[in-house]
Structure formats: C-alpha cells, structure tokens
Amino acid sequence: MDTLWQHEAFIGGAWRGAGDLRRFPVLDPATGETIAEVADCGEAEAEAAIAEAAIAYESWRGTTALERSRVLRRWHDLMMERQEELARLLTSEQGKPLAEARGEVAYAASFLSWFAEEARRAYGQVVPAHRADAEVVVLKEPVGVVAAVTPWNFPLAMITRKVGPALAAGCTIVVKPAEDTPLSALALARLGEAAGVPAGVVSIVTTRDAPSVVGALMRSPTVRKLSFTGSTATGKLLMRQSAETVKRLSLELGGNAPLIVFADADLDVAVRGTLASKFRNTGQTCVCANRILVEDAIYDRYAEALAEAVRRLKVAPGTVEGAAQGPLINRAGFAKVERHVADARAKGGRILAGGQPDAQGGLFFQPTVIADATPEMALADEETFGPVAALFRFQTEDEAIRLANATETGLSAYFFTRDLARAWRVARRLEAGMVGINEGVISTEVAPFGGVKQSGLGREGAAQGLEEYLETKYVLFGGLAA
C-alpha cells in the first residue's frame, strides 16, 4: 500500500480536490510549520458526498452482517499493521506524545473490531401476538445516510467510534473532520479503502469552512442522522438546525468533570489517577478532570504529592523520547489556558507547580497545579482544556457531591475512596453519564460513552452504540388462521 499521507478529500471512493482547487494548511503544533495542504471543500463537495452515500446505501444495507463484519475486521487489522505510521502522522498534526498516539491508534482500531462483532447482533424480536391469527415481529434496520462531525483531540478514535457502528448497522456515512487534524481522517479512509469498504460508504470531506459543509449536511433530507462530538454551544446550534429535517442525533458535548479525593483514599492511587485523568493529551480531553475536590483532612498532603508528580512531567514535542506533555493544539487553546491561570492567580490561587508558558516557547505550557481554587474562578465554570489542575477544598461528603454537581454539564466524574459503601452511594448521587472509582481513565469500546444534562444525547461504544444507528420497525402478519 502507498503512503498514508493523503491531501485530497475522499468522496464516493475517489480522491478529489475542491472544485475551485482551494487548499488549506495543516500545521504541526509543536513547531508551527506547515506539514501539508489539503483540499478545502465546500457545499458542492458535501452535496456530492451525500449523493454518493445515498447511492452506496442501497447496496450496502443489503449486504449480510457477516460481510460487513469482515470489512470492519480487515480495517482494524490494517490499522494495527500500520500503527507506528499512523501514530507518527497523528503526533505531527495533533501534538500528543508519540506513546499516547500509539495508544490512540489501538483504541481507535478497537471500535472497528468491536462493531465487527456487534454487526451480527442487531437482533429483532418475535412478540407474543394479540390475536390468534397474527404474528408480531420487530425488525432492526439501518437509519440510512449518516453525517459525522468530529473533533481534533482524538482524530482517529472519534471517527472510528462513529464509523464502526454506522457501517455495522448497514448505514453509509459522510465525515467532516476537524480543520486542525484532517490528515488522520484521510489516512483512515485510505486504510478503509484497502480493507474493502465500497465506494461511497465512507466519505471524508475536509474543510476549514465548517459552516458551509456542515450546513449542507444539516439541510439535506437524505441525511437521516447526525453524530457530533464537540462543544455544547455548537451542539445546541446543530440541534436547532436538525429540527427542519427531524434528524436522529447523537451528541457528545462538553464536560466539566469533577474528581473527588476523599480522606480515606489511597493517596498514591489518587495522585496517579489524577495525573492520568487531568494531564492525558495535555489536558485536552472532554473527560479530563476539570475540578479536583479534595477533603480538608488530606488536602495539603495530596496537593504537595500531586505538585511533585506534575513537576516531573516532561514537556517536549511528541516525538521526543519521554515526552509526557506536548503543545496545545492552537493559539486559541493556549490563550484560554493563560487566561484561566491568570484569573485564578488574581483571585487568590496559589501556584504549586508550573503556571507559565514553557521556556521552549510556541504552544507549550507548563503543567500546572493551583491550590486554594474557588467557585468564583473562571476555571470552575469553564473547561480549561489544558494542563491545569485546580484544587478545591471540601469538608463533608454532601458538600463534595453538591460541588461536583454544580454544573450544567454531566459527562464524566471521578472519585477516590476505600469505603465500599461510599463508593456505591457517591456513584449513584453524581450527575454524570460515566463515573470512575479509583481510576482516572475510563474510556473503552466495551462500555457506553456519553453524558447527561448538557453534555449530550445518546451513547457511543458498547451494544448501545449500535442501537444509535438502527431504526425499529414493527411488522404485523395477519390472517394466519388455518
């Protein structure tokens, strides 16, 4: 197979540029250098992708679950065969440390293998009928043509988590990847092509004009479902736009995750879990711990232990051996981190570690620990999306729950305790779609991923992920009496 570095959009099984030959640069966030220029598509290309998806749907939906399963499994295998190449490409455009990039490739591939298996489990039902001369049957059928809009922080996994179940169900899909990270999406399409994904079943429409492309997807009555991962504000906008054509929606939106450390926690486990949750991908994940709530009795010990661990994190370009913290994705992300740290310092926060742009310049910011955080600080209400751990103090379990739930979002939450009764009690009281107990990394293909409140609708991964791409049809067989 040829190189995975592709520069054209992938529409209807063909690699093609924008109609007016427009292109946009892709930057390495570690250096600021342009590493590629890709097709800058618009409304016309989006409409072409929709048309190709509609044509491909008529045949793809008719394939057997076993055929679809084999294609997804082969796609998974090709990803793992090219894991190192994919990881290096990902690090080049996204910035995360190479070790994390390798992990993302495996995580992304896991959704293809999982849904290769789930494709054969889209079971219907035969229901005891209400009449002696009838049979009641419930069928599961694919939704149809799907649109997916994906973010830059996990540019492979956020695509396979949508494409895997869509193809397993018999749907076709048009993907609009993030402007910052189109190369990973195009590499994935190249591997899908080699795996035998038929023309038109998966299209990748690259663009820096998101309103034009996404607008075409949202207006189209052919597109029956949208799967979106991104900010809550954008998710609300897409919900409004979807109303005209009554699209099915899967929305994985913003979070403001609490991480609670109770006094009975194993301190070493809590510190390791906090590092994993807060500083993975330089703090740029939707499930990052954003507010760290620590019981007063151990607050000072935990704060110093965490600060000491954070000071040891190596800040460097992702390709450097031992790099633990890469650059922020872009200038806007860097500016938000600076603003949150300055606001916290002005409102009485104590900097225990970091607190400054890194000496190597560019988009690198020191991993930071801030003590004496308060609800009045901007970082209490807004996702920082950067390497800043803010420590809040609490006295009682009830206070911790109240602080943890004091947000409009509810994607993930974490807490550390050795009390089994408390573990059950707190897990039930936290208003979040996912809860980690004595663990800082909870994402896996075998469990449902998603939030409550303004963190979104629907679930990805697990058996629930397939259901998001299936419609339920009731069929009544009458007149069956002898």
TrEMBL record:
Domain of life: Bacteria
Single biological process term from Gene Ontology: gamma-aminobutyric acid catabolic process
Molecular function, one GO term: succinate-semialdehyde dehydrogenase (NAD+) activity
Alphabetical UniProt keywords: Oxidation, Oxidoreductase, Potassium
Domain Aldehyde dehydrogenase as annotated: residue spans: 17-475
Active site per UniProt: 252
Entry keyword annotation includes Oxidoreductase: yes
Alphabetized Gene3D superfamilies for the sequence: Aldehyde Dehydrogenase, Chain A, domain 1, Aldehyde Dehydrogenase, Chain A, domain 2
CDD domains xrefs: ALDH_F5_SSADH_GabD
UniProt keyword Disulfide bond, yes or no: no
Any Pfam family matching the protein: Aldedh
Family indicated by similarity: Belongs to the aldehyde dehydrogenase family.
PANTHER family linked to this entry: SUCCINATE-SEMIALDEHYDE DEHYDROGENASE, MITOCHONDRIAL
NCBIfam families in UniProt: SSADH (TIGR01780)
Name of the molecule in the record: NAD-dependent succinate-semialdehyde dehydrogenase
